[in-house]
Amino acid sequence: MAVRIRLPGGTLKMKVYRELRERERARRIPVLKLGSLYFSRWSEPAASVERPARRRSQPISGSALTARKKPSSGGCA
């Protein structure tokens, strides 16, 4: 299982060889091998650095669920 560490401007990932993506295996991004672990750094585009990171642990509010558009229950208009 890969371990991701969020850093300013990118993400540091720690993986074993079978979890590497093609770009990591081809060394198109910075990769460091220490023993059987591979450390890769994925940088974020400049525009997304200014945005705060989203948190998955925050529940969706009830108003967001009810604000969805309901399908019309009629024929063609």
Describe the 3D structure.
- With 77 residues, the chain is α+β, with helices and mostly antiparallel strands.
- It has a domain at 3-50.
- It is built from 3 helices and 4 strands; from the N terminus they run E-E-H-E-E-H-H.
- The chain has a 4-stranded antiparallel beta sheet, with no helix packed on it.
What descriptors fit this protein?
77 residues; alpha+beta; four-stranded antiparallel beta sheet; 3 helices; elongated
Outline the secondary-structure elements.
Blueprint: E1 3-7, E2 10-15, H1 22-25, E3 31-34, E4 37-43, H2 46-50, H3 62-66
Antiparallel strand pairs: 1-2, 2-4, 3-4
Provide a concise account of the structure shown:
The protein is α+β, with helices and mostly antiparallel strands and 77 residues long. It is built from three helices and four strands; from the N terminus they run E-E-H-E-E-H-H.
How much of the polypeptide forms β-strand, as a percent range? 25-35%
Choose one word for the global shape: elongated
Low-confidence stretches: none
Cα distance spanning the termini = 53 Å
The Rg value, from CA coordinates, equals: 21 Å
